[in-house]
Amino acid sequence: MIKKRGSTKTPSKSHAPQIGEHLFWPVKRWQALQLNALRRHIRHADKSRLYAGRLPHSIKTLQHLTDCVLTDKDQLAAVGDAAFACKPDAVREWVTTSGTTGKPLRVPLTAADLQRLAENEAVALNIAGLCQGDTLTLALALDRMFVAGLAYWLGAQKLGVACIRAGSAYAAQLDILQSLLCGDRRNYVITVPSLLAGACGTAPGDNQSSVIQAVIGIGEPLRTAALIPNALAHRLTDTLRVPALSTYACTETCCTFAEGPKCIGGHLNPALAAVEILDDHGATVPTGTLGEVVVTPLGVQAMPLVRFRTGDIAALYTDPCPCGRTTPRLGPIVGRKRQLLKVRGSSLFPSAIFDCLSSIPEVQDYAVVAHREHDLSDRVELHVCLTRNTAAIRDRLALKVRALLKVHPQITITSIAAIRQLQSAANPRKPARFIDHRPTSAKT
Hints:
- With 444 residues, the protein is of the alpha/beta class.
- It has 2 domains: 106-334, Rossmann fold, CATH 3.40.50.12780; 340-442, ANL, C-terminal domain (GMP Synthetase, Chain A, domain 3).
- It contains 10 helices and 21 strands.
- A hairpin with a 2-residue loop joins strand 18 (363-374) and strand 19 (377-386).
- The longest helix is centred in the first third of the chain and has 19 residues, at 27-45.
- It is globular.
């Protein structure tokens, strides 16, 4: 539901439905809503050449979703427009994936898909605490065919929230970003959290900004696998004195898992998605166990996917959430299957290295480069920009990294300009903090 300041009333059955109200429904009630949406989605997906004749004729329960075929990114890249279920003249927007783990994929959106996208993000922003009359500063990319900036803008408009389109460059310039905020409004900032954290360490004077209600982070986790705030979240909250909230979404599904100040994990919107967590063999893992996030985005018209394997690793939680919502919550993305590192007998995701570096206040930004050393081990190089470059800080950095990796990796202390160049060279569409030079066949 849309939160209204000063109101403590709980939703009643007699009033008109409001955004996000169904996330508070009893489980059986929202499951019935989700099942009906799933049935409609399966019927529509059968219109694409990708799924024609490959889907069950009837879905009697949500558990029968496992009777459907799985879909992965390589398959989508191979089939091209065979995955589309709309006529070409129905497309109103083209977006692409970021290309983090492969070639960017073009995704079409119809007018109905854009409306669905607005609904999706309006619910997500409302979970984060935004209300009609608030202001949302978009310190992220709104160009290069990225769907994220478009989605947040659409959701804010549907929610009645004013937008400040600052762009990603201002995320790294805290003093300028703060000057854009509306002093007489409740302000929220949505951005890549490490960009803002780096700016916090270099901005002059007091970084506290009482007009910011919360920072909404995208593209990077702000919790550990134990569901507690990670080093990056602490860095933001300790400097800005505001909550740091996570969202998770991927371009192919246009579905968001969002958390609010009282949430532990990102809530599923059951009207727009069904989610599974699977092991390497495609079997469902127990609640709270890490596995691959598999999403069926409900209600999509242009490219309706079924059981899409995101390649992201996380756990799903169904125990009661302090916020009162009854839908499952997705834990932080601990890594991507293809990015798993093997270092001298230990396996870890790059996010563990990110968290280690973020825990050092003097680290402004970084890039992690992976090479294949031999069949059983990878070699990791770290490129780090420090706000203060002293022998004591360098020793502390080396000690913490060695404790994590159990080896002495090559650490290059460099400038922020060199870091940015390294990141953009690896992925021109999106700054890459993990740069993978291992052979494709060697990646998990």
